[in-house]
Design goal:
The structure is a homodimer. With about 325 residues, the first copy, chain A, is α/β, with parallel strands linked by helices. Helix content of chain A is about 35%, strand content about 20%. Chain A has 10 helices and 14 strands. Chain A has helices spanning about 45-60, 90-95, 130-135, 165-175, 200-210, 220-225, 225-230, 240-255, 270-285, 295-305, and strands spanning about 5-10, 15-20, 30-35, 65-70, 85, 100, 105-110, 115, 125, 140-145, 150-155, 160-165, 265, 290. Chain A has a 6-stranded mixed β-sheet, with helices on both faces. Chain A has a 5-stranded mixed β-sheet with strand order 12-11-10-13-14. The first copy, chain A, starts with 6 loop residues before the first strand and ends in a 10-residue tail after the last helix.
C-alpha cells in the first residue's frame, strides 16, 4: 500500500535544492536531493523549475500542498518574503507564509525569514528557522554551522534569539587571501573536512582551546597570527596549520555563542561538520549532539500543520 | 658649512626603502625616500642596489657607517638576521647586528628582528623594533598600525613585550573577499584613508565603540556581520560601511592591546593612519599621540651609537 502524501517540502537554497514528499506524520515517502539552487535557475524561472521538480509526484498523487523554505524567499529568489521578528514560533511563522500563484501547481507557500531588527544590531536568517523548528528542540541551543553559522536559542519550542557568526567565510578569506594560507600545504579550503573518515586532528582541538581562551573581541585579530608564527617556528607542522586555524575560529565562535554553556547544543549540519562541532564543543566541556538529517522537512511539515495546510492524522 | 655625516640609516622594507644621511646628533642632512623595496630588487642584487643608492653621499663624504633595518634582514632579503628575544633593548640589539661584506661599501650592518619565542605563542617583528627605539618612548605603549599592527610595551626604554594584530590584512580580506564588501560603494580598499583631508567619519567612531564593547574573542566573528545587516536595514549608508568595518576592527584591536589603558599610546604611522588611531583611542577614553616621522632614522642612529659605530658628539 502506498502511503498517502500530505505535503511537499522544498528546502531551496542559493546553491542547492532538496524536495521531500511527506506522509501524514511528516515522514518522507520520497526525496529529490540534487535539484538546482536559486542561482542555478536561469531567468528566474522558478515557476517552471518547481513544476518540473514535483511533476512526477503530482501526476500520480494529485494535489498536494507545497511549502518552500530558504533563499527562494529572498530578493534574489522567487518572491521576497518578510522577516518575522524574534522571539517567534510556529504560530507566527505559519501566519506569515507568503502565498505565490503558479502556472500549473496552484498556490504554493514560502516560509518567511526571521530577524532581530528590534535589537541594537539587526540579524537575519532565511531557511535556518525551518530547520531549527524541525530539530525537535524544546529548550536549548541550535547551531547551523558553515559559511555563516547561525546560533539560535530555543525556549519552550520558540526561537527567542539568534546570532550569525561569519566563521566559515572568514576562514576561507583568511586561508585564501592572507599570509596565513602561505605555509599551509594541505588541500582543505573550507571548514568542512574532506571526507567522512577525516579524523579530528589534535591541532584542531588545540586551536579550539586557544580560540576559546579568555580575551576581548580584539584578541582574535592577534590570535590568528599564531598560525603563521607556530608554522614559522615549526611548532605545528605545515599540514596541520589549516586545522589549527579552523579550530581557533570555531573555538572562539562556540565559546561566545554558548556563553554560560548550560544548554545542550544541537548541531544541524552534514555528518562531517557535525562531528567537528561536537568534538569542539566537547573539548570546551560543553554538551553537544547532532540533529537528524530530516530537520528541514520536519520543520516545513510542522509549519504546514500550524498553517492548517496539512490535516491532522486520521482525517480524510 | 656642511654638517659632518656620521651614519647612513636605511629602512628597507618589502615594498619600499628610505635612506637617511645623519649628522652627529642623528638629524637628517639628506634623505632618499623612494628607493625600491626588497621585492623591487631583481635577482637579489642588494649589494649593487645599496651601492647605487648611497653612492652620491659616499662620493662626496667618504666612508660613513651604514645600518640597515627591516625586511632586508629576512629570509627574502639580503641575509637573514637572528631574532633577539624579548624583553630586550638597545644594548642587546646593538650586540646582535649582522655584519655583511659588500663589494664597494665595506662592511654594513643589518639590525636583527625581535621575537617572543619563549612565550606560549611566538610572535615576531622585523624593522618595527628600530622605529620603536627611535620614538623616544621611555614608558608606554607603541603601536605601528597597518597590515600587521605591532603593539609594543616599552618600560625603562626597553621593549618588554609585543603582539601582532592582523587588523589591516583582515580588513582587506573581509572587504575584498566576503559578503561584507558587497554593499560597500566607496573606493577605500585599505585601512588607510585616501587623503590627508579625509575626515574621521561618525560611522568609523561608532564602529570603534562597537568593536571595543565587551565580549569574548568570538564576538568579533558575529560583530562584523553587522556591517551587512546595518547596510541591509539602511541604518548605515552604503558609503559609510567600509568606515564602520574599519572602526569595528581597529576598536577591537585597541581595546585588546591597550588593556587597562593607563599607558600613553604612541602611534608610529603615516599622518592619515595616525589621525585614525588617535581618534579611535580617544573615542575609547585612552590617551594617544602621534610619533615624529623620524622614528626609523632615530632608532637606527641610537642602535649605531650603542654599537659604537658612531662616535659621540664632539669626537673627531
Amino acid at each position: 500500500m502506498t502511503a498517502r502524501a500530505r505535503l511537499i517540502a522544498v528546502d531551496w537554497g542559493t546553491t542547492s535544492c532538496r524536495a521531500s514528499l511527506l506522509d501524514a506524520r511528516g515522514n518522507a515517502i520520497a526525496r529529490i536531493a540534487d535539484a538546482p539552487g536559486i542561482l542555478g535557475v536561469g531567468d528566474r524561472k522558478f515557476d517552471e523549475a518547481l513544476s518540473a521538480l514535483v511533476a512526477p509526484w503530482r501526476k500520480t498523487r494529485g494535489h498536494i500542498p507545497i511549502v518552500l523554505s530558504g533563499m527562494i524567499g529572498s530578493r534574489q529568489g522567487w518572491k521576497e518574503t518578510m522577516y518575522v521578528p524574534c522571539p517567534t514560533g510556529l504560530t507566527e511563522i505559519a501566519a506569515s507564509l507568503l502565498t505565490v500563484a503558479t502556472s500549473d501547481l496552484g498556490e504554493v507557500r514560502i516560509v518567511p525569514g526571521l530577524d532581530t531588527s528590534n535589537a541594537d544590531v539587526p540579524d537575519v536568517m532565511r531557511g535556518e528557522e525551518t530547520q531549527i523548528l524541525g530539530a525537535g528542540v524544546v529548550d536549548g541551543l541550535c547551531v547551523l554551522p558553515g559559511t555563516h553559522s547561525k546560533w539560535a536559542q530555543v525556549e519552550g519550542g520558540r526561537i527567542t534569539r539568534f546570532a550569525t557568526y561569519m566563521t566559515g567565510e572568514i576562514y576561507a578569506a583568511l586561508r585564501g587571501h592572507t599570509i596565513l594560507g602561505r605555509l599551509m600545504t594541505e588541500p582543505r579550503l573550507m571548514l568542512e573536512p574532506q571526507s567522512p573518515a577525516d579524523e579530528i586532528a589534535p591541532a584542531f582541538l588545540a586551536g579550539v582551546r586557544a580560540g576559546a581562551a579568555a580575551g576581548g573581541p580584539g584578541a582574535l585579530l592577534h590570535r590568528v597570527f599564531s598560525v603563521r608564527t607556530l608554522g614559522l617556528f615549526e611548532r605545528i607542522p605545515a599540514d596541520a596549520l589549516a586545522d589549527h586555524l579552523s579550530g581557533l575560529l570555531i573555538g572562539a565562535e562556540i565559546a561566545d555563542a554558548a556563553h554560560g554553556g548550560k544548554r545542550l547544543i544541537t548541531v544541524i549540519a552534514s555528518d562531517q561538520l557535525t562531528k567537528r562541532y561536537v568534538a569542539a564543543a566537547q573539548a570546551l566541556g560543553l554538551l553537544a549532539h547532532g540533529a537528524p538529517a530530516t530537520c528541514a522537512e520536519r520543520g516545513a511539515f510542522a509549519i504546514a500543520k500550524a498553517a492548517r495546510l496539512v490535516s491532522p492524522v486520521g482525517a480524510a
